[in-house]
Design brief:
The protein has 4 helices and 4 strands. It has 109 residues and is mainly alpha-helical.
Amino acid sequence: MTKTFGKLCEQGIGKVRRFLLLRFRKAYVEQQVERRQGECNQCGNCCELLFKCPFLIKNDTGDTLCSIYENRPKQCAAFPIDKRCLSEVDFDCTYTFLQIEPQVQRADT
Ligand code: SF4
Ligand code: SF4
């Protein structure tokens, strides 16, 4: 499927954003891990952001494998960090994120 220029830009920015989050906002990344729900279904969608990763193997049944799984980059293991990452794969991912309700300030405290 051909990607629009807008989608390519979104995915490119997403890759840089994840790199920076993992490097400089570790507390945020850890917080998001607690909110993340679900399991990876190995669809491989996150391995085709911007371009198809050369380490991605697709078998006949449609399942995917990472040929360097044990040594894959941190950015791969961390996907998706938050909802914005899910948008990059058009929410075609089996992870979701718990919504955290804002704390209500009580008048008597
Ligand atoms: S898009 Fe989501 S479900 Fe698919 S391989 Fe990536 S993390 Fe797993
Ligand atoms: S290195 Fe592996 S997990 Fe990372 S994008 Fe490539 S195939 Fe996917």
